Each structure stands twice: as structure tokens, then as C-alpha cells.
Fold this protein.
Amino acid sequence: MIFDLDDTLYPEMEHVVGAFKPVSRYLERQFKGQKHFFDMMVEVFRAGRSKKVFNAVLEEMGLPHDQQLIATLVSIYRAHQPIIRPFPGARETMRALRTRFRVGLLTDGHLETQRKKVRALGIAQYFDRIIYTDEHGKDWWKPSRLGFEEMQRSFGLSGAQCAYIADNPLKDFYAPNTMGWLTIRVRSKDGLYARLEASGDYKARSQIDQIASVLRILENCGRG
């Protein structure tokens, strides 16, 4: 049983909002008299423009910026110590799964940021193996199969013996689907990718609205 991290085991927006706060404070010091940086960042992020939030906010506010300023803002964002909590039932679900399965975590994202999230959540003890794809380079980021192949190899299992539980149909399910894994989408109502639809190998084979329902999916598979 392999898990994704963001918006699968905890609400990702908690981390995003927390990290935007120190960035906003820095910008308020740099641009005296300017306010609303935080609100603008949240608005831009929720609108789906998550890749270049800082650029977009400064452009919309008509403020000068260069690569050095953007790099500083990214650094502040990544240095943020997150205060985040697992979804209700996440700990209990992983604890129950560990009595029956090997359990792993496979997550994309900036390496130190993802490590900080795992430490803040206090969940490392639930996993037999954690793969931070960024530790191996961008070639390992999903939808690449490399992380899934390594997890499968390290557990000594074949595709049909593995499952991936995640949230983002743009990248999470393609590789495990093509490898014969069971794929389960956690589609919580406030998830950042909850409104996205997918088809073919990008679509998870099963869907749930909360992490605790993983156990129900497995029971149904067992009866089948």
C-alpha cells in the first residue's frame, strides 16, 4: 500500500496558506504601503495558477520584480516550518494497514519541503519505505514510472500486489495504472484537484472521498 502525500494524507492548502504568510510579510517590508499580498496569493493559487504565484501577484499589482526577488520568495516559501495535521482517520487507517501490508510513501515536490511536511505530520513511523522523488532528480517526478518501479523492487512485489492512493489525476495514476497496480483516488471536497476529471490510464480505478474509506475499498476487492 503506497501513499501520495499532498492532499492525500493531509489538506495541502494548510501548508500553502501557512507558507504564503512569511512571503507576504517579506513583500510588505520590501514594498512599503502595499498590502493584500497574502489574499492575492491565495486567490491566484486557488485559480489554478500555482506554478508562478509570486510572479502573477506582483504583475497584477504592478510592482517591479526580477529573478532574484522571485528566487528569494521561493526560498522563504520553502524554508517555512509547516503546521499541518493529517486528515481525520489517516493515522488510524495507516496503522490498520500496517498490520496486513507493507506501507510506503511516494511523493513529488522540493525535497526539503516534503521532508518538513512528513516531520510536521509525525507520520514517518507508519511507512516501511519513503521515496522522495526529488532526491533522485526531476526524471523521477510523476508521471514517471521510476519511483513506482523502485518501490515495487524494494518490496519484492509485482504490479498486481501493489496499490497507490493519491489525489491528482494529472500525474498520480498513469504510471501505476500501466504497471498493473490498483489505483485509488482520494477526492476530498476541498482538495486542490478535486474538480479535475481524467480518462484512460490517467484515471484511478477506484475513488473515495476520505482516506479512511481505503479500508472499505480493500474489503470490497477481497470479496471480489
Summary: The first strand starts at residue 2 and ends at 3.
